[in-house]
Design brief:
The complex is a heterodimer of chains A (313) and B (249). Chain A has 313 residues and is mainly α. Chain A is built from 15 helices and two strands. In chain A, a hairpin with a 2-residue loop joins strand 1 and strand 2. Chain A is globular. The longest helix of chain B is centred in the middle third of the chain and has 18 residues. The chains are: A mainly alpha (313), B alpha/beta (249).
């Protein structure tokens, strides 16, 4: 009961963000960005924290989602929902196709393959100038109003768009929560804990690793699509392995054994980036120091630590 | 009719002949021990049955079906379930969550993103039942890695039981245990055999336990079967004594 109350309170806080964010020096687009990166990190955590697959190339699916959405708006149809849908499907489908290449690998091999494949998509985006805008990125598209029958909602204002992001975030997070509570989610965790034991219980673990990677791909791609529409722009940086590394940092900062950990990690990361980068060019140094401290002091991440305290009490 | 049969099975690792032309038969409902000095091929013997390694020559039959080429997962589904010499459980999960994983796999729902309320309740009941059988009721919500070694091994047995085994294979179930823990494990194995009617095949180094609970004993040495029989027969066997105590010069 307390859990449900907390969850509702949390959601109300998110709902009210456009009012309170300016009071603490933030702005609505920053809220959107946090939700988007939080969603991507939570998606990554399905593989990383819950299935134990070291996916270090998650930006590929974020970027594919972004390009999928942007190119749909620019070249195909002026529709926001379709753009988000196409982006999500493109990124998710890519992860689904890539899955069989890595589902049998573990540890560092899994990590290397995910990075390599991620870079493959990056170079495609850089080289395919005509369609993607190459190094300059993809611009020249704009999020379109939503149509509900005769009623039209403009998404031009950042506040209106924030609510679309929040709706997508809520749906995707609810879906992940539900999956992790299901037997499928239990099986993922079992594979993370001991793949050999899981195999000797008769599980074909490959398929589950694949499913986890594919679903994480869809979630991350959704985040990528939302991000492209937030800025009406995307660039090869959204596919780059540096962003993949940042996603991993967000997950580890917040706590990868915790459902909400990656959201907290993303919040810290994005807020630090936003504030510190206006103060110094070396803001990554601060993130790095914070990262080292947290890994040393709270190996289970910030929320992992809190959850442990709560259980001990 | 035999439950498990090995016909002239051999397994080489390079030039090492881990198991040589081994034939073995075990009827349903038996409690059988496998003993032998270090390097006798006991672990390879287990691995051949579970499918972790394949035979270089010979055939493995289970339930009158040649399973020599059947992968691990499908052998498990046929009811061949094992524990390991070094405990292998899901360390960061609770006792309940560990066993729930097995129960969900056995029920064929492991890949489902959704189960009905009634199914959920039935699964949870089965988990509780298994926890009760192995006597871990009081520790159901404890994280397994924080339990004593003996309890962790019991969890592994419960995990194996959750698969509804037709042949339960235990690799040194009492390894590394103190006296009390050993007694409890021995009692559990005996109860599983008598009360649940399980066919159990176990490797064990402690001869007291072996001679105490096994109905029949198979002795391996240097990859070959050198003796087989009731505890009384084995105790009187010259070749077994030689293998264990060295050649009488």
């Amino acid at each position: 009961m307390r859990r449900v109350a907390l969850l509702i309170a949390f959601w109300v806080v998110l709902l009210a963000a456009p009012w309170w964010l300016p009071l603490v020096g933030g702005y609505t687009a920053l809220g959107s960005k946090i939700l988007i990166y939080g969603l991507a990190a939570m998606g990554l955590n399905l593989v990383l924290g819950y299935t134990g697959g070291l996916s270090f190339g998650q930006a590929a699916y974020f970027g594919l989602g972004a390009y999928g959405a942007g190119m749909t708006l620019k070249y195909l149809v002026p529709s926001t929902p379709l753009a988000i849908l196409v982006g999500t499907l493109v990124g998710g489908a890519a992860a689904t196709l890539v899955g069989p290449l890595l589902m049998r690998r573990r540890g560092i091999y899994f990590a290397m393959i995910t990075i390599a494949i991620g870079q493959l998509f990056y170079f495609v985006a850089v080289r395919w100038n005509v369609a993607t805008g190459g190094e300059d990125g993809l611009a020249g598209f704009e999020r379109q109003p939503l149509h509900f029958g005769t009623h039209t909602v403009s998404l031009h204002e950042t506040t209106a768009y924030y609510y679309l992001v929040l709706a997508c975030f809520t749906a995707a997070v609810a879906l992940m929560w539900w999956l992790l509570k299901s037997p499928l989610g239990h099986t993922w965790v079992a594979i993370r804990e001991s793949q050999r034991r899981a195999q000797f219980l008769g599980l074909k673990t490959d398929r589950y690793v694949w499913a986890s990677f594919a679903i994480a791909g869809f979630v991350t791609a959704l985040a990528g699509a939302l991000n492209a529409l937030l800025f009406n722009f995307t660039s090869p940086e959204d596919l780059h392995w540096i962003l993949s590394g940042n996603f991993v940092i967000m997950v580890v900062l917040g706590g990868m054994r915790n459902f909400w950990g990656p959201l907290l990690g993303a919040t810290l990361f994005i807020v630090a980036q936003d504030y510190l980068s206006s103060v110094t060019d070396n803001w990554m140094t601060c993130i790095g120091l914070l990262f080292i401290m947290i890994v040393l002091l709270f190996p289970k991440g910030l929320l992992g630590m809190v959850a442990r305290r709560a259980r001990a009490a | 009719m035999s439950l498990l049969r090995l016909d002239n099975v051999s397994r080489n690792f390079g030039s090492l002949k881990a198991v040589q032309q081994l034939s073995f038969e075990m009827p349903q409902g038996e409690l059988r021990a496998v003993i032998g000095p270090n390097g006798a091929g006991k672990t390879t013997f287990f691995n051949l049955i579970t499918g972790f390694v394949r035979c270089t020559a010979g055939e493995v039959w289970f339930d009158d079906e040649n399973i020599s080429a059947v992968p691990i997962a499908n052998r498990v589904r046929r009811g061949i379930v094992r524990t390991f010499q070094i405990t292998d459980v899901f360390p960061d999960l609770s006792v309940f969550e560990n066993i729930r994983t097995g129960v969900e796999i056995a029920a064929g729902v492991a890949s489902r993103p959704w189960v009905s309320r009634a199914t959920r309740a039935a699964l949870d009941r089965r988990v509780d039942e298994l926890i009760d059988i192995v006597g871990l009721d009081a520790k159901a919500d404890r994280v397994v890695s924080e339990l004593a070694h003996g309890d962790q091994r019991v969890v592994e047995v419960a995990l194996a039981l959750s698969m509804n085994p037709r042949l339960l294979m235990l690799d040194e179930p009492t390894a590394g245990m103190g006296d009390t823990e050993t007694d409890r494990m021995v009692d559990l194995v005996r109860r599983l055999h008598t009360e649940q009617g399980l066919s159990i095949l176990f490797i064990e180094h402690d001869m007291n336990i072996v001679f105490n609970i096994a109905q029949r004993i198979t002795v391996l040495d240097q990859g070959q079967k050198i003796a087989e029989g009731t505890p009384t027969e084995i105790a009187a066997n010259e070749r077994v004594r030689t293998a264990y105590l060295g050649e009488p010069e």
